[in-house]
Design brief:
The structure is a homodimer of 287-residue chains.
Chain A: E1 6-9, E2 15-24, H1 36-53, E3 56-68, H2 72-89, E4 93-102, E5 107-116, E6 132-136, H3 146-149, H4 154-163, E7 168-171, H5 176-186, E8 190-193, H6 202-211, H7 217-223, E9 230-234, H8 236-245, E10 252-259, E11 263-267, E12 273-275
Parallel strand pairs in A: 3-4, 8-11
Antiparallel strand pairs in A: 1-2, 2-5, 3-5, 6-9, 6-10, 7-9, 8-10, 11-12
Helix pairs in contact in A: 1-2, 1-4, 6-7
């Protein structure tokens, strides 16, 4: 899957997008210490973030659960107590799903259907050399709370896509540098970053200070992931207008620009640059 | 969820349907003894059966997996080896999904998007007193193999819906009598069955003979579930034509008719009837 959601062409010519995320206990959260309402909310929010990355309007979701037998009914109720308010906030139909019980930890899988306003959804692959690289919000330290309580950038994406020419987008689920690298790879270009411009979340500074492991706040911002902010590739002139307008309630910041040379780069003094390794969460599997 | 899939209205006025089924190891199958290819195929097939019950044409599916860490990559490959040929057979896009690994048994969740040919999908709630109750195929004993290798009745449903006036439909996932009861309950009517007319699968007879537990082949047919055949409510005259035509490669059989009195009934000699308890698999959850 090269985009955050798959584009589906219906018989009537209408395009919609379909995306699915599965969260599992002990991996994506720990029910032992985490309110199930926040888990239910997150399971929906991560899908909405995927739709946002394609500037698709969420229409409906289905929810599938594998519940531990003991206390399963109560757990299901709590998950929905977290999920429903977010669905209502975005006027999304929760179109049923499938509820199962078994003798193992919780699995929650949400699939979201979105529709595309224009003829084509926003994609990862449209960035071009010279485009400004913009981001919403700030990065790093999401494990301190934002990874559960983030606001999916649906409204922001729809507003930006309606009012500005956007070339490409991706949401940051696995790490700012890793997801940016994925976007420019899909676009067959590269990106150079002005590291001093990267908006660092206060949580990243808090994490860096408290862990004292030599990992800086900037490192956290570049690699932590689960920020669920948007990275956008925007034509330079259009980016100027957007940055001037600041049309969102969250700041939009330019952190670099797309290059014809592939890969990730950091800008050095005097126009030079050096390679920057994309870092973040890789979904590894054993053979 | 009162239908097999949820109906979603898109902005352009187009209706589509969305359905999701999650299968878990040790509950819906046992990987220990079951070829993962059959599991992958079944995970898609049960969703296609849900779409068939609404006479919706399958368009795209997404697949989410929670894989045991050990051997997960190989398992994923085998699941897709079973799923892909069925998707190709029905010309369905496998639109990506989400692959995770964890330290627990396999979970596979498939969500299918379908589109509706006419202005409205076929529903459970349209049966009317006097309608004939028709079924495709035969019932019972699916645990001997059919529960994994059944053919979802997608083509059959589309063909019947295009050529005959159908009032209501449901697919048999939990048991012939239980799912029929659900259909007539949603329709606020009842149904009386001619038990001698129910098509009994050879597997039901085999099971009854081998278990020797007093459960008859007919009991298996009425309550086993996972037959994934269709139950249809069809206006009497239309049913006559359909039964005469026998337009499918599988037989269509009348097993009873809808009644104004709610509930399930069995026909007795001389026009009398007695109550019949709906039986099948109930998806129970502990508190």
């Amino acid at each position: 899957l090269s985009d955050d959601a798959a584009v589906v062409l219906l018989g009537g010519g209408q395009r919609c997008v379909l995306t699915s995320d599965m969260l599992t206990d002990e991996v994506d959260f720990r029910l032992e210490v985490c309110d199930p309402r926040r888990v239910g909310r997150k399971a929906l929010a991560v899908n909405l973030s995927d739709l946002a990355a394609m500037a698709a309007r969420p229409v409906a979701v289905v929810v599938s659960l594998a519940l531990p037998r003991r206390g399963g009914q109560r757990l299901a109720r709590q998950l929905y107590e977290g999920l429903i308010p977010l669905a209502e906030e975005f006027d999304i139909a929760v179109a049923g799903g499938d509820t199962n019980s078994w003798d193992h930890p919780l699995v929650i899988s949400v699939t979201a259907l979105g529709e595309v306003a224009g003829p084509e959804p926003l994609r990862r692959s449209g960035a071009r050399p010279g485009d400004a690289v913009l981001v919403t919000g700030a990065f790093g330290g999401s494990s301190l709370g934002k990874h559960l309580d983030f606001q999916p950038r649906v409204r922001e994406a729809l507003l930006l896509n309606a009012n500005y020419q956007l070339h490409a987008a991706i949401d940051v689920s696995d790490g700012l540098s890793l997801d940016l690298w994925r976007m420019v790879e899909e676009s067959r270009c590269g990106a150079e970053l002005d590291l001093s411009a990267i908006p660092i979340d206060p949580s990243a500074r808090q994490l860096a200070a408290s862990l004292d492991d030599g990992v800086s706040a900037l490192d956290h911002a570049l690699s932590d992931g689960e920020d669920f902010e948007l990275i956008l590739a925007v034509p330079a002139g259009e980016a100027e207008r957007l940055l001037e307008d600041q049309p969102l309630s969250t700041p939009v910041t330019q952190i670099g620009r797309c290059t014809s040379e592939r890969g990730l780069w950091r800008q050095l003094e005097g126009g030079a640059r050096e390679a920057l390794a994309p870092r973040g969460y890789e979904h590894g599997l054993d053979g």
